[in-house]
Every structure is written in structure tokens, then in C-alpha cells.
Design goal:
352 residues; alpha/beta; Rossmann fold; 2 domains; six-stranded parallel β-sheet; four-stranded parallel β-sheet; 14 helices; globular
């Protein structure tokens, strides 16, 4: 698109992640919990200031991180506008993994300062915009909604049988999830729905791909409910293997307990041409329903999930048709190129 981006990261990205025009600066730290992140914040801010003095940027763009106030200083020092990207309700997410009142208070304070200093706050969903505006009394015009997307060149339809072999998954119908294992992902409802799916489709398997806070609890529940023969937990897989796993699924799952976000995995599933069973929240279920790329179900409704998954497993032609529509929707509306173009427009208009 003709822009140059200097990206500051704590670890090197997988090879081939970024294209032309992106210069990655890896800021290494000390691998000690909390200390490593604080040092990354400080060292990356210093590196941005030094680089900015040599080659003045048009804008400072940060993805929201807990306690990171240093980009505010960088933007002030370089006299450049600050843009803050918010992908979810950080306060709620930290509560769900056990953050205490002191930690939540610090996050709230850092958010208040960051959003007050930002020229624009870019959020991924309308519900998230409304929540932030209400919580921090932000002017409406300073909060812009730009939904997430995906890379249709990297995530594209592949043969299911071959993908299952490469992923080490059994042949036959697979109901799958790829993502971080955090409380807001409603795998508990999928586990509750599983007996009714197994009864109708005895050869079905459920693959939960990823790692995180909730993975041990989900595994324990599967054992407790005598479903161990049907659930697979491959754990964290390499970035480049994600398309293979998604293409190994017959039906993809995007269930959440509450949502103010725009899950990237939804667009990844659609990009691979797989039908999606999704909770009927704004930015998730409505996307699936609008494009007929799967089935939207009431949140936390195990019976509805059972009915939806069984309907798809019973009808391979419907799966193919919904997958095709999802792929078309991604190509037309939900690419990272579209996201980047929208962000560039916001930066240009704000800077002018």
C-alpha cells in the first residue's frame, strides 16, 4: 500500500508474517514475569524515540497493553498523533482470570490516561466502542470502529482428508476450535452439547486447538463427563499450521459467553471455507447469519449448539455451500488489506 511501518515486538514473528514495507525491531528483555514486560515497554519506547529522531514518523500506533503508558511519552516527545487499538474489554478479561482490585485499578488508571492522550481510539466492534465511551466519557468522534479481518492468501480452502492426516487428527467428522483458551470462549457449552452430537454421529471428534488459562479445566471436565474418547487437545500449534488444522475441521466453533470483540478466528474459519456455529452476539453471530456462512445460536445454549452441529454434519452439501459463502465474504469484505486501508484513512484524516 506504499506505507512504511516500524514494528516493535518482544519476540521475532514467524517467517513470512509481514510483507514489504514492514521493518521489525525485536526488543529483547529479561525472561522474568512482569519484569520482562516492563523492560519491553521502556526499551521499546527508547528505541522508538531514537528512531523517530532519525526518521520522523507520521503517527504512533499502539495496540493496547496493560500498564503501558510509554507510547504517550513517545508521541509527546516526537510531537506526533497517537492512535490506540483496542481489541477487547481488558478489564473484564482480567477479572475472568482472577485479577484483584489493585491490579484492576491500575489497568483502569492506565486506560484512562492512554485514551485521554490518544488522538483516536480504534476498536474492533460497536459494542466495545459504546462500552469505552460510557466507561471513560470519551467523545464519540474519537472512537472509531474497524472490524478485524484475515489473510485469504494464507488461509484458504484445502482438502479435508489431507489436512486431517497432516494435523494428526482421525478421519471422519471433526468439530473444531482454534484459539486462546480463556474464559470468554464458551467451550463449556460445546462440552455440554457433545453427548447429543455423539449420539447422532458416533464417529465425531472434537478438537480444541490452543493453550491458555482454561485448558486444564476443560480437559478435567471432559474426563468427568466421560467424553475423553471424543475430545482432542493438541495444545499450542505453530502459526503456520493453523490453516491445516482449520481445514481438518468439518464444522468450526466460535462460541463465546459474552462478546464486545471481533474474533479473528471467525474470519479465519470463513476464509478456509468451513461452516461456523457462532454465538449470536453482534460482530460474531450476525456476521455468520448475514453471509449465510454458518448457523448463529443463542449464547450458552447447549441444545441449540447440538441441533446446529448435527444439522451441518447431516448435510455435507450445506456445509460446502456455507463454506463457499464465507470464503466469498472474506475476499470481498474481511481482509487485512481492508483493515489496513481503513486505519490508514483514519490516520490521514486525523493528522490533516
Amino acid at each position: 500500500m506504499g506505507h512504511r511501518v516500524d514494528l516493535f515486538l518482544p519476540t521475532p514473528p514467524p517467517p513470512g508474517t509481514f510483507g514489504e514495507g514492514v521493518m521489525v525491531h525485536v526488543i529483547r528483555s529479561i525472561p522474568i514475569r512482569m519484569v520482562d514486560w516492563m523492560l519491553f515497554y521502556i526499551f521499546s519506547a527508547l528505541a522508538m524515540c531514537l528512531l523517530g529522531l532519525r526518521r520522523r514518523p507520521d503517527a504512533i500506533y499502539m495496540r493496547e497493553l496493560a500498564y503501558d503508558l510509554f507510547p504517550i511519552i513517545v508521541a509527546w516527545f516526537l510531537r506526533r498523533p497517537l492512535f490506540v487499538e483496542v481489541n477487547g474489554p481488558l478489564l473484564d478479561e482480567m477479572k475472568q482470570i482472577g485479577a484483584g482490585p489493585f491490579e484492576l485499578g491500575l489497568i483502569r488508571l492506565s486506560q484512562r490516561w492512554t485514551f485521554a492522550a490518544a488522538d483516536r481510539v480504534i476498536v474492533v466492534a460497536v459494542l466495545l466502542r459504546d462500552w469505552l465511551i460510557g466507561l471513560y466519557q470519551l467523545p464519540d468522534e474519537r472512537v472509531v470502529v474497524i472490524p478485524n479481518g484475515t489473510d485469504p492468501d494464507r488461509l484458504h480452502p484445502m482438502d479435508m482428508d489431507t489436512s486431517q492426516q497432516h494435523a494428526g487428527l482421525p478421519e471422519g467428522p471433526v468439530v473444531g476450535f482454534v484459539g486462546s483458551c480463556y474464559p470468554y470462549h464458551d467451550i463449556d457449552t460445546l462440552i455440554s452439547a457433545a453427548p447429543g452430537i455423539v449420539q447422532a454421529h458416533p464417529k465425531v471428534r472434537f478438537a480444541i486447538v490452543g493453550d491458555g488459562y482454561m485448558r486444564p479445566a476443560w480437559m478435567d471436565r471432559v474426563i468427568k463427563d466421560n467424553l475423553s474418547d471424543y475430545f482432542l487437545f493438541p495444545g499450542l500449534v505453530a502459526y503456520e499450521e493453523i490453516p491445516t488444522y482449520i481445514n481438518a475441521f468439518t464444522v468450526c466453533i466460535s462460541l463465546v459467553k459474552n462478546s464486545m470483540g471481533s474474533p479473528v478466528k471467525l474470519y479465519e474459519y470463513m476464509s478456509c471455507g468451513r461452516p461456523v456455529v457462532a454465538s449470536d452476539y453482534q460482530g460474531i453471530g450476525d456476521v455468520v447469519a448475514a453471509h449465510q456462512a454458518g448457523i448463529s445460536v443463542p449464547a450458552c445454549d447447549a441444545e441449540a449448539v447440538t441441533v446446529a452441529v448435527n444439522r451441518l454434519l447431516d448435510d455435507p452439501e450445506l456445509c460446502c455451500e456455507m463454506g463457499r459463502r464465507g470464503r466469498e465474504a472474506v475476499e470481498q469484505e474481511f481482509t487485512w488489506r481492508r483493515v489496513a486501508s481503513d486505519i490508514a484513512d483514519v490516520i490521514k484524516k486525523t493528522s490533516n
